[in-house]
Design a protein that fits this description.
Length: about 220
């Protein structure tokens, strides 16, 4: 993929129009601030233009995740959606036309790695060159594994995204981890999109790590 990944319609006006291929972005903020919804919107943003969606879901099952994507894209092409479900949900129903891999738990990083690799290969066979990878959320992995193990996994996954010119969108709840752990994990990403509640109660976002984007807060609906 030679052009960038369009994010203009998702992020506040004038903030950032696209992210270069190979970029991994971390959405960081407190619980219930809207990180998951923002991640879903970023993953869905290029689907109408031919991008594939490859998403790892650690809490909600594949059916719930698919419904979130279809809410954003009513004309969703299920042939360009791949889901790794490691939620441990009792629901094992096969979803029609969706490429899926099931992993026993979020602690099985080997299973997640194998699953994402298989789905990425299936996109390559379809000549889908632009793939938006999602992992919602990193915080769940930390509940099962130590920071060092999660960091190594993220290093491998983000390196794969860079090598294949994909776009990575990850989420992290910064209200449930100590600052040292947050700093360790965020160092693995090309940029961080912070979310917070402003003084007036409205949500705000700002980007860190991209020289072309000023580090100022923007209102976010």
């Amino acid at each position: 993929m030679s052009s960038g990944y369009d994010v203009d319609e998702v992020l506040p006006a004038g903030m950032l129009s696209e992210l270069r291929p190979g970029t991994s972005l971390l959405i960081e903020g407190p619980s219930m601030i809207g990180k998951r919804r923002l991640a879903i919107r970023l993953l869905a943003a290029g689907h109408r233009e031919g991008d594939g969606i490859l998403c790892v879901t650690t809490s909600n099952n594949a059916e719930k995740l698919l419904s979130e994507f279809e809410a954003e894209i009513p004309t969703l092409d299920r042939g360009r959606v791949g889901i790794v479900d490691c939620s441990g949900s009792d629901s094992q129903r096969t979803i029609e036309d969706i490429a899926m891999e099931r992993v026993s738990s979020p602690g099985d990083l080997t299973g997640i790695s194998i699953g994402t690799a298989k789905l990425l290969q299936s996109f390559a066979k379809q000549d889908v060159s632009g793939v938006r990878h999602g992992l919602v959320s990193v915080s769940t992995l930390i509940q099962y594994l130590d920071i060092g193990t999660v960091f190594k996994f993220l290093h491998i996954y983000t390196s794969r995204i860079a090598d294949t010119d994909g776009l990575g969108v990850f989420t992290l709840d910064n209200s449930t981890h100590d600052q040292q752990s947050i700093n360790t994990l965020t160092s693995e990403f090309d940029c961080v999109l912070e979310m917070r509640e402003g003084d007036d109660g409205d949500r705000e976002v700002r980007m860190k790590g991209l020289e072309s984007v000023p580090r100022e807060w923007h209102a976010y609906d």
